[in-house]
Design a protein that fits this description.
The protein is α/β, with parallel strands linked by helices. The protein folds into two domains: 1-31 and 78-121 and 172-252, TPP-binding domain (Rossmann fold, 3-Layer(aba) Sandwich); 33-75 and 126-165, 2-Layer Sandwich (SIR2/SIRT2 'Small Domain'). The protein has helices at 40-43, 46-49, 52-57, 59-75, 80-91, 108-112, 174-186, 205-211, 238-245, 247-250, and strands spanning 16-21, 97-102, 117-119, 122-129, 141-142, 161-165, 189-193, 215-220, 232-235. The strands form two sheets. The protein has a six-stranded parallel beta sheet, with helices on both faces. It has a three-stranded antiparallel beta sheet with strand order 5-4-6, with helices on one face. Helix 5 (80-91) runs parallel beside helix 9. The two termini are 33 Å apart. The relative contact order is 0.21. The structure holds ligand BV8. Residues 22-24, 27-28, 33-36, 39, 50, 103-105, 121, 165-171, 194-196, 198-200, 220-222, 224, 237-238 line the site of ligand BV8.
Length: 252
């Protein structure tokens, strides 16, 4: 499928906009995506590192996997796609509304300057207690640097600490999901960047926006799995395509 010719989008200053991003927006920063060849999952079986069962079975492996990714994320920098998305939030600040929903856990959107970021799959830079009966399991703490060579333990209950990441088979954080669904329900423009549209329930947001009549747009290296939900499809690298799509915003 060929995409549409990439040209600057007309985004009114008072528009209600939701941007949803996936691993593809960070690819040009040097962060491996999940499904492209050589992607993250290929080095580890998904069940071994991104499920709670995998964590219980081998917490050392899972902590090494996430500590490595945290170090990688701190070594790389936002790319022009991240900065263009930050400029879009600024452009809409007075009269419009902007919500960024990201499936990425690398923290690059905040480092590029975005403020209203919903990290729907959690963050490499937050840690919480794994014991559901411990209050520290509901209150993740910021954690940029702790290097987990030894398994970290909760100060409150002595249980294991875990990355504040939504693993496969786990529910999204209820408050974050409610905010995301509200923004999707209200938006006039729904723009997704760099996501394969494979992982649920986030992969269903574009369908909701489409059915509510929003202008649904996707920018991706290839057509996503849920391409039928998009009225406009722009193919190419995010670092090149997104600044072109947001040229009117960047030149404002
Ligand atoms: C839940 C944290 C249930 C981990 C992640 C069958 C049908 C429907 C659902 C399911 C099903 N089988 C299983 C499920 C459920 C499952 C799911 O959706 N599985 C998929 C694989 C089918 N979902 C879940 O488990 C969710 N929870 O369902 O709970 C429940 C309900 C009630 C009560 C209890 C439980 C939780 C899902 C969250 C999992 N966690 N992340 C971590 O990061 O370590 S998901 C993981 O995938 C990342 O967050 C990642 O972002 C996300 C999605 O992937 P993408 O971001 O899209 O990345 P990907 O590599 O796939 O694609 C990149 C795209 O970019 C590609 O298209 C590529 O072409 C493009 N690209 C590459 N380079 C560039 C580019 N584009 C532009 N420029 C470039 N340079």
């Amino acid at each position: 499928m060929a995409g549409h010719k990439v040209s600057a989008l007309d985004i009114p200053r008072n528009a209600a906009v939701v941007v949803l991003t996936g691993a593809g927006v960070s690819a040009e920063s040097g962060i491996a995506t999940f499904r492209d060849s050589g992607g993250l999952w290929e080095q580890h079986r998904v069940e071994d590192v991104a499920t709670h069962e995998g964590f219980v079975k081998n917490p050392e492996l899972v902590w090494r996997f996430y500590s490595l990714r945290r170090k990688d994320a701190l070594r790389v920098h936002p790319n022009p796609a991240h900065y263009a998305i930050a400029a879009l939030e600024e452009y809409l600040a007075d009269k419009g509304s902007f919500t960024l929903i990201t499936q990425n856990v690398d923290g690059l959107h905040s480092r590029a300057g975005n403020k209203n970021v919903l990290e729907i799959h959690g963050s490499l830079f937050k840690t919480k207690c794994d014991n559901p009966r411990c209050p520290a399991s509901e209150t993740p703490f910021d954690d940029e640097t702790t290097d987990y060579d030894a398994l970290p333990k909760c100060e409150k209950c002595g249980g294991l600490l875990r990355p504040d990441i939504v693993w496969f088979g786990e529910q999204l954080d209820r408050v974050t999901e409610a905010k995301a669904m509200h923004a999707v329900g209200e938006c006039e423009i729904f723009l997704t960047i760099g996501t394969s549209g494979v992982v649920w329930p986030v992969a269903g947001y574009s369908r909701l926006a489409y059915e509510l009549g929003a202008r649904t747009i996707t920018a991706n290296l290839e057509p996503p799995a849920n391409v039928q939900n998009y009225r406009e499809v722009y193919l190419g690298k995010a670092g090149e395509v997104v600044p072109m799509l947001l040229a009117n915003v960047l030149n404002d």
